[in-house]
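For the sake of transparency, this paper describes our internal protein records without simplification. The tokens are whole numbers drawn from a learned vocabulary of local backbone shapes. One such record is reproduced below, unchanged from the form in which we store it.

. . .
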Amino acid sequence: MPSMKKAKFKQPKMRQKRAKKEEEPQINSDSEDEMDTEGHKKSLEKLKTIDPDFYNFLEENDENLLNFEADSDDDNSEKAEDDENEDQLHVPGAITGDSDESDFEDEKSKPVHGRITLKMVSQWQAELQSEGKIKLATLTTVIKVFNAAMLRATSDDGASKGEYKVEGSSIFNSVIQMCVLYLPAAIKKYLGTEQSGKDPKKCKHYVKIKGPLLAYLKDLLKLLSSVTSENILTVLLKHLHQMCVYVACFTSISKQALKKLISLWSNSEETVRVLAFLCILRITRNQQTALLDLVLKAMYLTYVKNCKFVSPSTWPGINFMRRSLVEMFALDLNVSYQHVFLYIRQLAIHLRNAIVVQKIENRQAVYNWQFVNSLHLWADLISATSNKPQLQPLCYPLVMVITNTIKLVPTHQYYPLRFHCVDILISLSKETNTFIPILPFLVEVLTSYDFNKKHTKVSMKPLDFSCVLRLAKSQLMENGFKDSVIERVYGLLLEYTANESHSIAFPDITLLAVIQIKQFLKSCSVSNYTKKMRQLLEKIEENSKFIEKERAKISFALSEDKMIAAWEASIRAKGTPLLAFFENWNKVNKIQKRKKVTKNDEIAGDLPVIKRPKIPETEEKVKKPENKGPLVLFPSDSEGEEDQFKLKEETEEPKPKKVKKKVNKKKVQKEILPELDVPDKEDVVKDFSVNDW
């Protein structure tokens, strides 16, 4: 160690300083010792001549006193040995202990083997960003460092047994940042796929980097599975999206990545879901023939698992999964046809069992959110691919499944499920431009239920059918149930008739519905319900007259399909009265739905209240003028009798007045007493005597 060498080199200087400091007192002490020994010898020789008996006694009993020269020699030798030992003592060098944050180390100190510093990270980062050729050694080193960082994050004790050691949070962050920001571009540059965008497997340098790249992707997936923070997940998923080209080169890594990404796609926060789906889409596109079947099956099963419970909070996630699944199935319609046919057939089998075997278990297999959301998914897929012929043969069986689902239990409790199915049919009819007889399912609600029946329970708000399939019997007795049913029937009738308003057969399509609406208006006595349905009836009749007027101008035969399609397209472009009314109504309806979701009405309801300070009682009381009239000393008996029949509150209030009156009486008595005539007496003057005591 350099610090040890410095300490040994400085040791003689320290000895010289000590010697200089101790030199003077040592000289004085040595001279005094020499004088004492000489005098002691002379005194002993005199003692030998003066008192030989005592000298002999000392020789026999205390030889050390006579042989003091040997003792002094021994002491001197011990001192010399101590000095030699002091010369041989090890003097410790400068303290070089590791701090808690080992990132910021002394530059002069020798680095521990394998420990990564910020200087090393910045050097590798500069090499990855260099304009020249990227060295393979740099890429492999960076991948090994990332492996060390991953081991530190995922291991139990936080230690890595590899070639490199990542210690300290700042170094860990800098390593991850270096790999996320600069490694994908460096790999592209090394392989030469920056601008060409060709398959990495076809590059000549791919064989050299294949092993390190596989290790890096494994570490990245391990890190992705161990992270729970949404912010870190978004960063890692963006990085994985850049590395998807290389993930597709390894089938085993692709399957592991897709398994993790599908779980994130179904259960995570919104941004994480979107990034996970983008990664799934990119990996599948790069390996479509091998992975598309597996991905479609896995994603559909996870969609069905996660749409079992529907609430306002889960609706956005379910809608996102449905739309993204539609995009995945649209990648290859020939492959998708087999899956869609199989799953629609499964739905039809469940429905057939419920119709044939009329048990609660079979009915519950159909009347649940998983079944309804599956219908919604396949309807959206067929609508999205209506311009392509592959999936259009499946439209008819899907419509039959939906209509028979409505007919399975056509009771009042399942009106919400009926409305959900009708909504699916309306969107399917609009997007595929096919006629589906939907009006009977809506008008049946008006004729089958007695809206004149009085409710037994009162609800302040109408029921929300958006997250409900079945209503309880207690909810059917509320007035909010009838309000919600009329509102929903009105909206669905208006939407369907507006979509068909340009059709040449519009007056004929709506004829039966118009007759049944008129019957409802005659039978229903609730003004709020009849007002809405009468408005709808007027708009339908107005549009029918408009179509009849335009239809009267036709010169071609009704058998000419192309001419009819061209005429309907011109009417749609021109616009119809019913469509214009629906667009205005739909704008207002969307605003109201947004208010319900954001609860703006509840927020606006809590208006600020101005709190005024309370006026103290002393200010409220007005000072009454004192009655300066003549005082009544003896009140009448009638006043006392009236006071007996008063309430406690009334009798307690005039108490202070009575006290005042008493005080006034005393004052009056004091004033009257001096006015009394007292007879004058002479003062008796006596001498003071002690005998009186």
Notes: The two ends are 119 Å apart (CA to CA).
